[in-house]
Amino acid sequence: MAEVFEINIRHLRGLLAIHEHGSITAAGSLVNLSQPALTQGIAKLERQFGYTLFERLSGGMVPTAMGRIVIERTEAALKHLADSAQGLSNVFNNPERLMTMTQLRAFLALADAGSFAEAARSISISQTAVHRAVGDLELVIGTDLVERRGRVVWLNAAGKKLARGARLAVAEIQAALVDLAIDSDSRSELISFGALPLARPFIVPRAMADIAREIPKASFKVLEGNWNELVEPLRDGVIDIIVGALRPHEITDLYQRPLLDDMLVVAAGSQHPLASVERPTMDQLRAYPWIVAPAGSPLRNHWEKVFAEGPRPEAQIECGSVMIIGRLLTDANLLTLLSPDQVALQIRSGLLTQIGGPLEGSRRVVGITTRRSWRPTATQRLFLDKLEQAACERNSNPDLTGTWI
């Protein structure tokens, strides 16, 4: 299978032109390629994708089934490029038509690395070549894309816009290569996603383990963080999925798919005086110091709602690390709010305990968030199915995670 940056964008434009007009002769003039050059370009694409992309019929050229896959992905890729370049250029009406994969590769490497030296190392070319490719791209756009201060480089507003479109375009072409991989047993694919806290204890690792067994060559890139830290990487195409608590409102460019409900509980060390109290009163809960989530977080907001009426208990410790919180609970008579899944192992081992039942009004929906424009590959669809299966397993057998909601 070819590497994505080996694909020629002009050849892809020729592919779309042939599909639209049914002949190489008509298509060649639209992409400024001679008929022999475009014929060779399509033949090269067919070698790179591993399939015949067109049937040569008396009435014209018709895409094969595999050709339609490449055409659909290419249309999406070039639309991402066009949208990201719109409004940036004062030189060309359609600057995306002049971009090359060499330019995009160098530009994205620079965006990721933050310096020309690191970008050059990451893609194994010279710094001069990176400078030249990014400079040529800026000439095509007609504006600066990066700001330089010594050896440090960062994207300006135009650069960020173009980088988002370029990443999404490259991802579409990569998806076409993966979809058409000739031998699925030897197929390798990177699944990039973000994991919010509620998904980390069970759903995510269960789905990853299933994929690892069924597709040994599949690999994962997992980013951990909160919603605000992961949503822009999702939009930029750095990751394709966020798994965790869904937002309680519609988001224009994102799609949210619910998987299961989660309710918060009060957690404490097994030595805590309230450990044996089946239904603690609010006064009993106020009598002990608490570990609370950082201000402004959903978990902190839930804690504030619990104690909205009457005095709040002492918030002795503010912390967002479940690992630190678990240790603190075993060593001191503290209370905290958590999802049972997050402390399931400690509960099963007897180190921690749940105080009372699930809290009223603390329901949170856990699910999957993706870009609305995203179309998963076969492996990515399988991963989504495995996440849904893990959620169903969790719902039907709460003891898997130590939860008794």
From TrEMBL:
Keywords: DNA-binding, Transcription, Transcription regulation
GO function terms (MF aspect): DNA-binding transcription factor activity; transcription cis-regulatory region binding
Superkingdom to which the source organism belongs: Bacteria
Transport as UniProt keyword: no
All residue ranges annotated as the HTH lysR-type domain in the record: 7-64, 99-156
Record bears the keyword Transcription: yes
Pfam families (UniProt xref): HTH_1, LysR_substrate
InterPro entries linked: LysR_HTH_N (IPR000847), LysR_subst-bd (IPR005119), WH-like_DNA-bd_sf (IPR036388), WH_DNA-bd_sf (IPR036390)
Family as reported in the entry's similarity comment: Belongs to the LysR transcriptional regulatory family.
Protein's name according to its UniProt entry: LysR family transcriptional regulator
Species of origin: Aurantiacibacter xanthus
